[in-house]
Design goal:
The structure is a single chain. The protein is α/β, with parallel strands linked by helices. 46% of the residues lie in helices and 16% in strands. The strands form two sheets. Strands 2-1-3-4-5-11 form a six-stranded parallel sheet, sandwiched between helices. The chain has a six-stranded mixed sheet with strand order 7-6-8-9-10-12, with helices on both faces. The chain folds into three domains: 44 residues, 434 Repressor (Amino-terminal Domain) (Orthogonal Bundle), CATH 1.10.260; 126 residues, Response regulator (Rossmann fold), CATH 3.40.50.2300; 131 residues, Response regulator (Rossmann fold), CATH 3.40.50. It comes from Paenibacillus campinasensis.
Length: 334
């Protein structure tokens, strides 16, 4: 038999009014008590009527999360962090993979609006300014992991520029002078910031980063492998490579192995993200770690704050990165 609000109230030892306040995020109820009631609702498989809430203009306690691809470990870990924090606050999350294509973004936004979600967390690219403006004007939006230059929205990002600098500083400290980089599209602000930080640190050490040593890649292991193979085929090949995400770094390791180039003896590799991939490769990757759990949790916090307080100013939170040194980097011996 389907559980009702009366069953939840009886199990929790509270009134149905208190349960209703928890469902609707109202009232002065302690965080511990609110969590206990939510756990009872989960255990009894109680589902408030989302349709009824939407029709009466109330919250549906549902968020949308748009990410490029769930198979990428970085976005998978961020999505889990978003789900965990949302669940703590009594919200559910609908996750959509967009492949960074505006037509899919538009379709999913339409679907989420039909579902009457309370807000959307955007971890995907969106190139159409009109679509971004219309979305931010119709519901609360938080951008996660990347910034929107065209439309003001709440934003949670890692310090990509500083992460790029840290990668270059580490390689310079190991004696490397011929450096290259694998990046995603420069239309993505986070990619531009990482490359800019990397280049700036090299230039300050009077080490040029030649244009032919900047390879723009698709977001895949295969493209990382292909572009690294091209770099290694050059007679003036680099001794150090900065990859702007872990997937590209895995491809770089594959290309080095195929070319008979030993890592780290003949090629040092630094990746970005520090997902689970970085620790399980051979050799394990030195990586610039993004605080993925914090990124997800803070994005949810901003969205809930927007719903409850409706602040006029849009907040930007920049989280620090950390260089995790493993076995893919070593001192260069000419």
């Amino acid at each position: 038999m389907k559980a009702t609000i009366y069953d939840v109230a009886r199990e929790a030892g509270v009134s149905i009014a208190t349960v209703s306040k928890v469902i609707n995020g109202k009232g002065k109820i302690s965080e511990e008590r609110r969590r206990e009631i939510i756990e009872i609702m989960d255990r009894l498989h109680y589902q408030p009527s989302v349709i009824a809430s939407a029709l009466t203009g109330k919250h549906t306690y549902t968020f949308g999360l748009l990410i490029p691809v769930i198979s990428n470990p970085f976005f998978a870990e961020v999505a889990r962090a978003v789900e965990d924090r949302a669940h703590q606050l009594g919200y559910s999350v609908i996750i959509c993979s967009t492949d960074n294509k505006d037509d899919r973004v538009e379709r999913y936004i339409g679907l989420l609006k039909q579902k009457s979600v309370d807000g959307i967390i955007m971890g995907t690219g969106i190139e159409r300014v009109d679509m971004a403006a219309e979305l931010s004007g119709s519901m609360p939006v938080v951008a996660i992991g990347r910034e929107w230059s065209s439309v003001p929205v709440h934003t949670v990002v890692a310090d990509d520029y500083q992460g790029g600098r840290a990668a270059a500083s580490h390689l310079l400290g190991l004696g490397h002078r011929r450096c290259a980089v694998l990046s995603e599209s420069m239309t993505i602000i986070s990619s531009r910031e990482r490359v800019q930080g990397y280049r700036q640190a090299l230039e300050e050490a009077d080490i040029p980063l030649h244009n032919d040593h900047i390879r723009i890649c698709k977001f895949t292991i295969e493209d990382g492998r292909r572009n690294t193979a091209l770099l290694l085929a050059d007679e003036n090949r680099p001794t150090a490579l900065f990859c702007c995400n872990d997937l590209l770094a895995v491809g770089a390791l594959q290309a080095a192995r195929e070319a008979g180039v030993r890592v780290p003896e003949q090629l040092s590799i630094v990746s970005f993200d520090n997902t689970i991939l970085a620790a399980v490769t051979d050799p394990p990757l030195t990586s610039v770690a993004q605080p993925m759990e914090q990124l997800g949790a803070m994005a949810v916090n901003l969205l809930v704050r927007e719903l409850e307080e409706k602040p006029s100013d849009k907040q930007k939170i920049v989280l620090q990165t950390e260089l995790i040194v493993r076995e893919s980097t070593a001192g260069w011996r000419s």
